Amino acid sequence: MKEMFDQLSAECSKLTTRRYSTSFSLGIYFLSKEIRQPIYSIYGFVRLADEIVDSFHQFDKKYLLNKFKQDSFEAIELGISLNPVLNSFQKVINEYQIDHELIHLFLNSMEMDLCEQTYTPELYDTYVLGSAEVVGLMCLKVFTKGDQKEYERLKPYAMKLGSAFQKVNFLRDVKADHQALNRSYFPNVDLALFCDNQKKQIEEEIEAEFKEALIGIKMLPLCSRNGVYLAYIYYKKLFNKIKGLTAERIMTERIRIPNHHKIGLMFDSVIRHKLNVI
C-alpha cells in the first residue's frame, strides 16, 4: 500500500534533516507534533538541492539539478515519486497548496550556484529570496494551516527571518565559500580584501532583519512559535559570536555553536516560551 511507502518517505526526510542539521532538527522537535513531518519534508527537499550544487563536484551538477527539478514537478503532478524525499515533499506541497512559484524561485537560486557569479545588489537580493526567504514561506504555509489571511499577515516577517538566517550562514561559511567554492555572495565586497568595516555593514543589515523577524515570531500560532523561536535564538547566538570576531578571523575558520551549548539554548527557549517572555 502507498501509505507504507509514504511513511518510509517521511522517515527518509526526517533522517536527512537529522544527519545534516542538528540545529534545525532541534527546532523542528519543538514544533507541535502534527506539523513536524511536513517541515522535515521541506528541509529534506532543500537539502538535496543544496547538496547537488555544493558537494557533487565529480558529477555533472547542471544535469543533476535539471533532473532534480523535472523529477520534483513530476512528483507534484503525479502525487508520487520513487525518490522518497521527493515523494515526501510532493505530499506537503499538494496537501498545503504551496505555490509552485516558491519552488521555482528556490531552484533558480540553486542554479545561480552552478557558475561563478559577480553579485550586484539586485542579484544578491534575488539569491537570498530564492535560497532562504521562500523556504520560510513554504514553512509558513504549514504553520498557518491554510489560513491565507494569517499567511499574508506573517509573510513579511517570515521572509526577514529567512534572509537573516541565510546572511548569517554567508558569514559563517565565508571561508569555505571563498576558498573551496570560489563564491562571494556579498555585493561590492572582495573577500580577498574583506575588512572589519565591510563586515560591520553586513552585520547591521542582519541585526535589523532579526529585530523585525522577532515581531513576527511573537505572532506565530502556538503550534510553531516555540520551534521557530529556538531556531531564532540559535542563529542569534551564532551571529553574536561572529560579531565578536574580526573579519580576518572568520576568513580563517568556520564559526560554530557546540552541541552542548545548543542544548542550553533549547532549555532557555522552552522556559521563555512557557513564561511568555519571548
TrEMBL record:
Coiled-coil residue windows: none
Keywords associated with the record: Transferase
UniProt key word Metal-binding: no
Species: Pedobacter fastidiosus
InterPro entries: Isoprenoid_synthase_dom_sf, Squ/phyt_synthse, Squalene/phytoene_synthase_CS
Any Pfam family matching the protein: SQS_PSY
Protein name per Swiss-Prot or TrEMBL: Squalene/phytoene synthase family protein
Family annotation (PANTHER family): BIFUNCTIONAL LYCOPENE CYCLASE/PHYTOENE SYNTHASE
Taxonomic lineage: Bacteria, Pseudomonadati, Bacteroidota, Sphingobacteriia, Sphingobacteriales
